[in-house]
DNA sequence: GTCTATAAACAGATAGAC
DNA sequence: GTCTATCTGTTTATAGAC
């Protein structure tokens, strides 16, 4: 945000997020990043101070962008009844399926985060409070409203992880799932089947946990 | 299985599986592997023909060992009734939780496979038919028996992926889950909570899918 | 801010003595 | 089968001209 050609920095960031997400940090060389960004290798040292610091800058960039998406004015009015909350939760899961499974390459931001979720570190420390925790919190609130459980209950938090984790798993295990299902790829038809399965799990979990039908 | 000191090859395999599982293929150098195995760097070329072929040899090794574990005489008699099948499925999930979450480092074999599951390639091609597909098939058979659905039905296969995927997710997302739950680690108490949650999901899914209570 | 040129460390692989 | 020594290419990082 100073002078000259300020979009080289930005181009490097976008290129790094993309390549780190696709192949991983270690498998991506600074040369590839510079080439992808149509920039010079030494621009990385100049703008960020090295490959490691570029990774952190990617985390900042991703966290900031995801937080902005997550905080945008709600598409739906705030749910008030358990039924509305259940519907909002289904919508949330559908959106996640759309975001993670629909696009062939999946949004670069998501893929970058998915890689870093698997390993504790500074990147996770950065993305967690700004995006992951608030997003999970919102899902927990919906779940609590839908079932009558306490929003801070560990059981609710784990249940939400289970549901969201299913989507993440189908993304990560895509190759395995395709082989086992006899699919060539995740096409629209396949994604609908997966979404139906996960939404079904969500519905029965909500139904059997709801106050009244409690065990 | 020839002459000399046949356990250098074995030591290299075990070291490579461990390090590839911990840090990933790209982040692990042949020098580290040799050091971990108390062997010489050039032993890798001699025994396997290079780093890439060592990776494949790891896949063979892992597939063979996992297949042996999976094929060992059933602890339980073959389930005959839906109730027995449901119990056997719960046991299967418990075992997976135990295998993936209990040990701090998780069995090296599992961690190696988890890394490779995320990316299509020769390793997956090797481990899939020898272990992953049969294991998934067995779970599908149990599910079908427990619910009355067809064992080859896509819905059953996806449902089984959903359940097993939850366990995988809690392993991969361990750091994230800990942060969000306010845990320091996956201790016995925490693992029990996770297992309860997943088993609960399994039970309600089986119950609501069973013939008779079908929607 | 961007470039070329190059340094310094490291990667994986191999030749050849033992 | 195992070792030392070394080759070759690539990595990240930096110095210095423009």
Would you kindly provide a written description of the structure presented here, covering whatever features stand out?
The structure is a homodimer of 215-residue chains. By secondary structure, chain A is mostly helical. Chain A has a domain of 141 residues: Tetracycline Repressor, domain 2. In chain A, 73% of the residues lie in helices and 0% in strands. Chain A has 10 helices and no strands. In chain A, helix 5 packs parallel to helix 8. The longest helix of chain A has 26 residues. The first copy, chain A, is globular. The mean pLDDT of chain A is 93. Chains A and B meet through helix 7, helix 8, helix 9 and helix 10 of A and helix 7, helix 8, helix 9 and helix 10 of B. The structure holds a DNA duplex (18 and 18 nucleotides).
Which keywords apply here?
homodimer; 215 residues; mainly alpha; Tetracycline Repressor, domain 2; DNA-binding
